[in-house]
Amino acid sequence: MIDFLRRLFGQPGSSATAKDRLRLVLMTDHLELAPEMIEAMKRDLVDVISRHVEVDRERIEVNFERQDSALAMLANIPILSVNRPNGNGAHAAPEPPKETPEPMAAAAAEPPTEAKKPPVRKRRRKSSKKAAAAKGAAPAATPAPAGAS
Amino acid sequence: MSQIQSVPQEIEAAAAPAKALGRAIVLTSGKGGVGKTTTTANLGTALAQRGAKVVLVDADVGLRNLDIVLGLESRVKHHLLDVLEEQCSLDDALVAGKHTETLFLLAAAQSREKDDVETHKMKELVASLRERFDYVLIDCPAGIELGFRNAVAGADEAIVVCTPEVSAVRDVDRVVGLLGNRFRPQLVINRLRPALVRKGKMLSVDDVNGILRLPLLGVIADEPEIIVTTNRGEPLALQRNTPTGAAYHAIAARIAGDDVPAPMPASSKPSLFERVGEFLGGKRA
Is B136 helix (H, G, I), strand (E, B) or coil? Predict the structure, then answer.
């Protein structure tokens, strides 16, 4: 009954849709316009992860993808070797049992690494949609390069 | 250049050399059709009615429109490019406003192209206008190409005009990024329809500025009067007793630094149907 009345007296507005679409498109716009920011982010990301595992800096891929109503950052960071949790020797050879089958731990294949060390999850941070979406408006004015002069 | 500075008496009377330099404000939006020209005409009129000496510069070379919105189309003899190319003096090209003594127009060239304008000359022109007027309002063309860069070149402040539409907001966001911090852009939201906002069918002021986060000068409603007055070439700001005319004056006051609240369109009372709908919670999803 209430549903019927609601339908009679007005349907949900489209302005909410407009707002969500704008948020998302502006985030993508800002990223597109700030390649140097993405590079800096990549560097920082790798620096943090490198404290714990050895990664292949040459083959890192960072992409942004729209997922439903949010923007996600997907990083593919090939891991070359993993140090033993308490040993400090850097084992250059790809020997740790957990990672050897496929040294290229793709971002998508997260669960195995997740269990090991919390810091590795850093690379998921950015894909936390709600945080990204909520902050989306803040950098609105800032990152675009000042090309008008 | 020497021509630009020569000042015949009748205009000098209206626009005596100012002690301090005037302010050069560009009105821009990225997207076309959001009401830049109408806003320029109305804010210029309102500022001039406050007693300030105002010159409106139509930087939309090739698509001249500010003259017709102001009802001055039959008086334009020379234009911006004539002045920039020193084909005539600045005073030959300045057209005095119809209703407001301290308002002047420098029209765009209709038969020329935006690329014909040299950026440094535009800068020089605006600089010399600032010596003579309190306000130099520059009506920027749509787009972000050379026409935009020329319009912006001589300005030191910006007003961005945005309608509550996704495309306009996105374009304003882009333009603000291009402008950078130097212009301290301020926002005018144009063509708001309070009834639609109430029904959740149009982006609200908060929605728009939640995204843009700019200092808000004011909000202008989408009123039929604006179309009617534009048809006649008599900016609505001439009618201070109308809500929209008053809103333009409030924005002008804020530009001038008065401490008045940003004008908001009165939201016409919701109908009984709408109120029942709101009660049921079905309106704002």
Answer: strand
| Alpha carbons B10 and B25: distance in angstroms, whole number | 25
Question: What is each CA distance from B102 to A126, A131, B13, B14, B250, in whole angstroms?
Answer: 55, 52, 10, 6, 19
The whole-angstrom separation of Cα A65 and Cα B135 is: 46
pTM given for the model: 0.74
The CA-to-CA distance between both ends of chain B, in Å, stands at 60
Residue that the structure tokens 């908060």 belong to:
B206
d(CA B56, CA B234): 15
CB < 8 Å & 24+ apart, contacts of A108-117: A108/A74, A113/A79, A116/A82, A116/A85, A117/A52, A117/A85
**Partner residue opposite A9 with nearest CB, options B165, B204, B280:** B280
A13 touching B (Cβ < 8 Å) = yes
- Closest residue, chain A, to B182 (C-alpha): A146
**CB burial of residue B261 (10 Å; 0-12, 13-18, 19+):** exposed
Query: Is residue A23 within 8 angstroms of chain B, CB to CB?
Result: yes
Nearest-CA distance A141 → chain B (Å): 5
> Which DSSP string do the residues of B247-259 spell out, in sequence order?
HHHHHHHHHTT--
In this complex, the residue of B153, B201, B276 whose CB is nearest that of residue A13 is B201
Question: In Å, what is the CA distance from A125 to each residue of A62, A71, B107, B110, B283?
Answer: 13, 12, 54, 54, 35
List, for residues B140-183, the tens digit of each pLDDT value: 999 999 999 999 999 999 999 999 999 999 999 999 999 988 99
B256 CA: distance to closest CA in chain A (Å):
24
Looking at CA atoms only, how far is residue B102 from chain A in angstroms? 30
Question: What's the pLDDT at B266?
Answer: 86
| A vs B: CB pairs below 8 A | 112
| Interface predicted TM-score of the whole assembly (ipTM), two decimals | 0.76
Contact A56, A42 (CB under 8 A): no
Phi, psi of B7 (to 5 degrees): -130, 110
Give the residue from A22, A29, A30 with the most B CB atoms within 10 Å of its CB, the best one to mutate.
A22
- 3-state SS, residue A82: strand
User: What are the backbone dihedrals phi and psi of residue B78, each rounded to the nearest 5 degrees, phi first?
Assistant: -130, 165
What letter does residue A115 receive in the DSSP assignment?
T
- In DSSP notation, B5-62 reads H---HHHHHHSPPPSSPPEEEEEE-SSSSSSHHHHHHHHHHHHHHTT--EEEEE--TT
